[in-house]
């Protein structure tokens, strides 16, 4: 049986607890910056040690911890950023080569379509 007081509420969006009389534990704000220069703010408990890297909230690349003055504390982790399939492809082939390959494949596909068997053998 559903509780009548819960009806129409978006669960998880709002807390049913009152904030009255609650003392928040001390928190520290850390900033992380990814290779695309997005800044991600993360709050940790004041006595917790912030990790060197965090996942960027904007592009999910690896973001590195910034010092209070905005400088990067540890540059090393940023080299581990995962490349996209497209970036890896561009390392092996130039854009011109890719255009050429695409044109070749499209031409071959059109020939097969014209024969009416494009979807039967591939
Ligand atoms: Zn980012």
Blueprint (SSEs and pairs):
Layout: E1 27-34, E2 39-45, E3 53-55, E4 62-65, H1 85-92, H2 95-114
Antiparallel strand pairs: 1-2, 1-4, 3-4
Bound molecules: zinc ion.
Zinc ion is lined by residues 34, 36, 38, 56, 58-59, 61.
What would you note in describing this structure?
With 122 residues, the protein is α+β, with helices and mostly antiparallel strands. It is 23% helix and 18% strand. A 4-stranded antiparallel beta sheet has the order 2-1-4-3, with no helix packed on it. The mean pLDDT is 81. Zinc ion binds next to loops.
Quick recap:
This protein has two domains: 26-81, RNA polymerase-binding protein A (Rubrerythrin, domain 2), CATH 2.20.28.270; 83-116. The protein is built from two helices and four strands, in the order E-E-E-E-H-H. It has helices spanning 85-92, 95-114; strands at residues 27-34, 39-45, 53-55, 62-65.
Element order: H for helix, E for strand: EEEEHH
- What is the strand arrangement across the widest sheet? 2-1-4-3
Note poorly predicted spans. none
Fraction of helical residues: 10-25%
- In angstroms, what is the radius of gyration? 26 Å
CATH topology tier name of the largest domain: Rubrerythrin, domain 2
CATH superfamily of the largest domain: RNA polymerase-binding protein A
Number of strands: 4
**Major sheet characteristics:** 4 strands, antiparallel
Per the principal axes of the C-alpha atoms, what is the gross shape? elongated
**Bound ligands:** zinc ion
For the record, the count of structural domains works out to: 2
Q: Quickly count the helices.
A: 2
